[in-house]
Amino acid sequence: MQLEPKMHNFPAYSRLATRRAQGTMTETTLQGLTERIGADHVARRLAVETRHEAQLFGQGTLLFNVENWNPAPWIVETALKATGLYGRARRNADRVEVRRNLVTSTRLPAAFDGFTILQLSDLHADISAGAMQHLRDIVRYVACDICVLTGDYRGKTFGPFEVSLASMKDVCARIKLPLYGILGNHDSIRMTPALEAMGIRMLFNESETIVRNGEAIHLAGIDDAHFYRTDDIPKAAAAIPRDAFSILLAHTPESYREAAKAGFDLMLSGHTHGGQLCLPGGFPIKLEARLPRSMGAGAWRHGGMAGYTSVGAGTSLLPVRLNCPPEITLHTLRCRR
């Protein structure tokens, strides 16, 4: 399988952003990324990290960012213990399942019939130690063609990320496949050099062409659209022929309308955790996203675009889950005639 990278320049946001990038980016490890995606994009994301990453109100698609509220983990733990559900919720969080999703399309080239994509999402590796251990045990045995990672590698939305990266490195070393990834709303752009050193091709409003037996499909990825608002779907789709089969990696499914309008055939997302703490039957209490509840977990459609929202392998706030088991997902592409 031949991989042909497609690179594009990020549109300028402002001269001020450029100056800030040049003035504040003392980390030489970001220089290569700056040259690839543009100083304006890097500066814009760094500015949000510096000023807003722990912000409770405003910034992003939601009015209140519960993940940035310090008492939230204590409240959740106290409530679960008071109801006698804490032990069960802790055990559930470690039991990562392998789920399968079938995607059929009349636009899929015949050479890609049966092509399988492993999706890992919302690992929150430093919080989800038990789930990560289980993940390390199973990913080496999963048969697929490529692996995609749809963001949120760190537990908190701010602060250190070295423990998360160390755990990520251990998992990625067991996946002997081409790896592609995007950042989520919990991730710092400063994590990118280390992620790419693990062999992950990180996509920032960029696309790649995957060629198989002389035929091609296109894989694009956007930067976080939920909190950082640094996504650019038109740019990510710019080099993809309109009649070609294309897949979009987007941390949050909240961009589904724009993705469908851009002509993507499949959108792979995460972010919602499926609610993480759900009522019996898997009904989510809260999704932390502005979108129809039918798009909060699993397979869905919008117009001509298929979508899938992974509930994630890890957990947010605390390693607890109820009626919403953690997952990694195998997507199999099939031609429909």
Summarize this entry quickly:
The protein has 337 residues and is α/β, with parallel strands linked by helices.
What does this protein look like?
The chain has about 325 residues and is an alpha/beta fold. Helix content is about 25%, strand content about 20%. It has 10 helices and 15 strands. The chain has helices at about 15-25, 30-35, 40-50, 70-80, 85-95, 130-140, 160-170, 190-195, 235, 255-260, and strands at about 1-5, 95-105, 115-120, 145-150, 180, 200, 205-210, 215-220, 245-250, 265-270, 280, 285, 300, 305-310, 325-335. The strands form 3 sheets. Strands 1-7-8-9-10-14-13 form a 7-stranded mixed sheet. The chain has a 6-stranded mixed sheet with strand order 2-15-3-4-5-6. Helix 2 packs across helix 3 (about 40-50) and helix 6 runs parallel beside helix 7. The longest helix is centred in the first third of the chain and has 14 residues, at about 40-50. It starts with a strand and ends with a strand. Mean pLDDT is about 90; it is low at about 1-25.
Order of strands, main sheet, comes to 1-7-8-9-10-14-13
Give the count of helical stretches. 10
**Uncertain residue segments:** 1-26
Distance between the termini: 24 Å
SS content category: alpha/beta
Strand content bin = 15-25%
Instruction: Please provide the count of β strands.
Output: 15
Main sheet: strands, sense, barrel: 7 strands, mixed
The dominant shape is globular
What value does the Rg take, in angstroms? 19 Å
The averaged pLDDT comes out at 89
